[in-house]
Records
---
Amino acid sequence: MFNTTGWNRLRYNLYAPVYDAVAERAFRRARREALGQVNWQPGMRVLLVGAGTGLDLPWLPRDVEIHATDLAPAMVKRIAKRAESLGMDVQADTMDAERLEYPDDHFDVVVMHLILAVMPDPERGLMEAHRVLKPHAQLCVMDKFQADDEPAGLARRALNELTSAIATDITRQARPLLETAGFAIEVDRPVMMGSLFRALLARAV
Ligand SMILES: C[S@@+](CC[C@H](N)C(=O)[O-])C[C@H]1O[C@@H](n2cnc3c(N)ncnc32)[C@H](O)[C@@H]1O
């Protein structure tokens, strides 16, 4: 019943006014570290998927072309507001990560921060990211994951019933997800709460 795209749209529209109070400071270091792993070049075309209120914007280079999308219109409004207050030119649009409205081979970098553990079908989201990325272009991920070498145990799966309804899935495994979607992982490091939160840089192959 929960963890559907419709439920996510509803709850993130409701969370939008308080999102920064919860997430700004808490993830500041982790998002900077993740974005710092990207090999940035002037003029790159960059897509933020599930961009929330745009908390990544302050940590992006100024000489790239930025597109930011989110499922929840209340989030997209806040992205546009943040971009304006930062003096950044950002194309902000409401869009489902499962159906990106961009052509194939269009972006140099796709950023997916704290969305793969939220969307009901992360495989589909990653396939879309792969489709819109140019060959060998970069995917920047920061999220919470279960260790790749062991599936989630019973207790974690039980807790996941609650966390996935109100916040996020805690049983997903990064490496199988990314590799199945056609990405080669170049960097994978823990960035927060031990190894629960990881920052990964991968290439579309
Ligand atoms: C935990 S927030 C992360 C926001 C932001 N990336 C950040 O790092 O602060 C998850 C975001 O993903 C968005 N989202 C969830 N499902 C989505 C989907 N199918 N397509 C696009 N955005 C989605 C939500 O609306 C929410 O803004």
Note: Strands lie at 45-49, 65-70, 90-94, 107-113, 133-144, 183-192, 197-204.
---
Amino acid sequence: MNRISWDQYFMSQSHLLALRSTCTRLAVGATIVRDKRIIAGGYNGSIAGGVHCSDEGCYVIDNHCVRTIHAEMNALLQCAKFGVPTEGAEIYVTHFPCLQCCKAIIQSGIKTVYYAVDYKNHPYAIELFEQANVKVEHVEFDNMPNEAKEQEKRAFVTDLIEKLADTMNESEIKRLYNESDKLFS
Ligand SMILES: [Zn+2]
Ligand SMILES: [Zn+2]
């Protein structure tokens, strides 16, 4: 019998959680694990009961969506809410954590970070993880290849269209964006 590894199992959970994201900028999922048990999970979203970016559009200031609580933060706050210790725990995230989440992860006593996708890996975050003796490991996620690569594919196509924008007229560009939307919806 072919059993999936613990790493793939927990990473699958994070990718599943990412599908619940409400911020359209990036769908991220995070799973906190202790002694091979899932103790909390989170995804990119608004405060409970708040409006969703997916309904109202993102609230962007300085190129960041300020409405969203990051997946890692949501998972950690779930532990705070229910009084679950995070000391010595591990976290599985779909994307390399941002600087804010990096600091929260360190401060909560988490000792290992597994991430599936490199995402603007901030040199200071890498430095802080090293300094705090938090192990950071890249785990290639391979159980849902189509879903896992969808965001990268979309980002790549968007990037290509943006590069073409200078050489084409507006209606042609619009048509390309529409076709890409249809393809990825
Ligand atoms: Zn947003
Ligand atoms: Zn973050």
Note: The first strand starts at residue 29 and ends at 34.
---
Amino acid sequence: MKFCLQVFAFAALGLLNGCSCGSDGNSLGSVGMDGGDREGGADGGDMDSAVGSGDVDVGEDADAQDADAQDADAGPVDPFDSADFDDEPTACSGEWVYGTLGGQAGWTAVTNDYAQPDSFLGTTQVLGDEPARGLSVVGTFAGGDGLEEAGQVFAGSRAVWFKRGYDSPGSGTPQSPNIEPAGLGSDADSTATGGDGAYRDTFRYSLRIRAHQNNDGSRLAIVTGKIDGNDNASNYLEVANDGAGGMRVRVLVQTPGGGWDGTYTDIADGLAYDTWHEIVAVMKHHPGAVVDLWQYRVDGVLSDITDGYYSVARDEFSFDYESSSRMKLRPRHANYDGSKLGFYLDNLAVSSWRADARVATKSEYCANFEGEPGG
Ligand SMILES: [Ca+2]
């Protein structure tokens, strides 16, 4: 607790690595995140105030022709390529039980999984419908084995139903297994964690999502996390099922010079709650920069390019930049609220690469939850 008090100002804002003070996750929602003016638009990702000027070691990639391009620290960031959005990993892995996603198949454990009224034992096969569960691998009963909780599925016979859970900027929310990181210092981060030591400038994640019921106020942030799993890394994207006209997908854009202040910008709205939607997020990192650029595609429609909220905020408060290595799912509506029935998720995919050595540096992971239950 002493430690937490010392860093309270930052912990409350959601960027403190590993702080475990409090039980409410010290949501960044308390500062700058709610009530933002959604009329403000994306500004195209002006990096002038935040881009560093130093060269970046491009890592140990053997492709010598890449070095010159990466040394051009005054040049433009590699442009977003529509092909990046279509490049979804398909070699999915994992064996799943009909229990919480947290703790399964390399996913991080979920804090409060055993403390909430709607909790159930992680990594333990569960029997049949238990509608109060907060986070479940669910199925269509197609297998006829009677084990699964019934839920909506995008592809195959299983998906994930995420209703409620710990709203934490740090650890305690489900995060996918790490892949090779992308962004500033990703070469060093990779080396430090036993990876290949290559620098990567592109990070991509995607999923299919729909809601359980119309306009119940459920909100889910789907962002990047860092290797040690204790903080947000770069961006802020949220699906909000909070409008009579349908769901919306929005991003938070930091106000330049505004500290933690930011503006929510809808990048899609009017999305039917009972239809599957595709969200694809792509990050581009310029060598030496401390701010990442992001572009999103929702149901085939590209957004404007925006700065990664957390990458800007880190710079504003002189926190270190953090590379991105995983997908982090973070409920944003009230915990313990049984009226929020959340979202179904399927075909979760994460990948990273360096644009000028795409094949050699590609790292990827995906989960479609079709692995044999009970494995
Ligand atoms: Ca599936």
Note: Confidence is low (pLDDT under 50) at residues 1-75.
